[in-house]
Automatic annotation (TrEMBL):
Residues 53-77 are annotated as: Disordered. Residues 68-77 have a biased composition (Basic and acidic residues). InterPro entries: DUF6158 (IPR046156). This is Integrase. It holds the Pfam family DUF6158.
Amino acid sequence: MIGVEPGRLDDQQLMKELETIHRTRHSTLLHGSNDALHAHNERMAQLEGEYLRRHPRRVITSGRTRSGAREREPQGE
């Protein structure tokens, strides 16, 4: 495992870890080795899984659902 086990992080530490891994995602995808990308994928899945475990009733924005996205007006028209 890379880093501290997500279940051992407090809420503030978990959010900081999530913010960091999301911020570095694009760079890792474009320029990281296959091993770095694999490690990044695993860590991101662990952190996101822990967040979802802690927040099963998180607020879902309607525009971030499939049906909500379909209701948006097309851009540029």
